[in-house]
Each structure stands twice: as structure tokens, then as C-alpha cells.
Amino acid sequence: MANIGPYHTLSELLGTRVVVSDLIQSLSKIPRSDVLRCLAGLSTLVSRETSGFPQEQLRILHHFAPIDIAAKLEKALVTRKLSGPLFFRRQLWFVWQMALIACKDDSTIQHDTQTQRQVGLCCLMASDVMKDVEIAQPVDAAETETLRFIVTTLISHSEAVSDSEGIARCQLFWLELQQDEESKRLLKRIGLQPIAHTFEAAYGIPLEEFIRFATTLYLKFGESTLRDPPSALMFDSSQAFKDYFTHDHIAKSLKLLSTTPDGLASRLLGTPRQSWAF
Questions:
Q1: Do 276 and 90 touch, CB atoms closer than 8 A?
Q2: Handedness of CA 11, 15, 18, 23 (dihedral sign)
Q3: Tens of pLDDT along 93-116?
């Protein structure tokens, strides 16, 4: 199983201190579209089942970090016999959101190795910023070391947990629970319409149809991360979009699920956040 313990940072391995302003300054030099494109590629790599293994982390490091920094980091990891991750999903989410805020979208739509390595370095810098936040605990000094280990381990456990349970909870809460007789009586007593009825009236698409579309879209995005993707004879996600949904429902579903980078940046700045993970 891949390592899910505390991740490693530039300050820990190289003694290079990084703060938020350093990350923002580095990101602001890269066009936003280029950052998002590189993060999409990185996301595919770190979402694979084997991504947490040391040899896979080193492979990603040498593809996405500046050559000199990658060599120094590998030497530090090997010398100190460390096996924690350098690249992981929560880190990418953080950089992705910071890029929406800090970068301008003036991309030339050209993907080159230099840009790729700049984005990889920003990801490594982000780990320092994240760790400063995640290990901050208002506790007595004697308890600090224990709690730091527990907190960083539990937070990073999300990197090894599948997101598919969200689909099951969605099916249970939004569809099956609404058919429960007790739930129906409660809604009627307080004068509320069933959620499915309210959703369809507001957005013009049945709630069950929207959930099916979102599930199909999720499975499509997740196929590239599977070691053994399902046979097309069992489930072809590309064909499913054509056969299972009308053009009208696809358009309405995508409108609900989509936003522009500028719109998303405004929402991120205007909404209180407890976590940089979705």
C-alpha cells in the first residue's frame, strides 16, 4: 500500500523557507491556462493507486520539478531514508485554487517542459504553506509532537480513500431517503415540497437524471486513474453520454456543474473556507 503519512516539504528537505507570498509571486508569472493544464496532468498521475510509492513519487518529481531541485530532493530523501509523498491530490487542489486567484489567463496554449517544471515547483512550495496551517495546534508544548503526527496522518488519509462513497451517499440522501414514508410525512407537516420536485422546478431537469449525469461524468474522469479500467463491453462512458441523456439535459447539467475561472475565483475569495480540499 502507498504511504499515506505526513508529506515532505522544501523547508524540511532543503532548508528553503516558503511563505504564501512566495507561492503567489511564482504562480503569477505563469499563465493560468498553462497552470491548470499542467495540474490536470499531475492529477492523473497522483490519483493512480501506485502514486504514493517512493519510486513513483521520484518519477513524478523528475518530470515536474526543475532538474537541479529534483536531484537535491532525491538525494535528501535517499540519504535520510524518507518515503512520504512530495506530490498529492490535496496539494494540487490548493495550487489550483491559488492559480485561479493569482494568475492571468493569457496563455499561448503551448505546453513546454519549462512551464511544466515551474508548475511542479509551485506544487512543492505549496506543501510548505499547507503544512504550516495543518500542524498549527493550540495545545500545550508537551502534546505538540504527538498531535502533529496524528493530524497530518489523518488529513493525508484522504489521499488513499476513494471518492465513490460520495455517489452512494448522494443516491441515498437525495433519492432513496425522499421516498421514505416518515420523510414524506415530515415534509408535508412543515409544508415543504419533495426535494426532487423543487430541484426540477428550479433547474428544468429531474434530480435523478442530473445525478445520473454527474455520476457518468465522474466515472469518465476517473477512468484514467484506474489500473484496470472496466471493459467497454461492460460500460463505455463515452457512449453513455450519447445514449443515456438528451442534448437538453446535458446542456442543463453542464450549466449547473460549470463555471468560468473568473467566476470560481470570485466564489473562492467571497466564501469562508475551512479547508482547501473539496
A1: yes
A2: negative
A3: 899 889 988 888 766 666 688 999
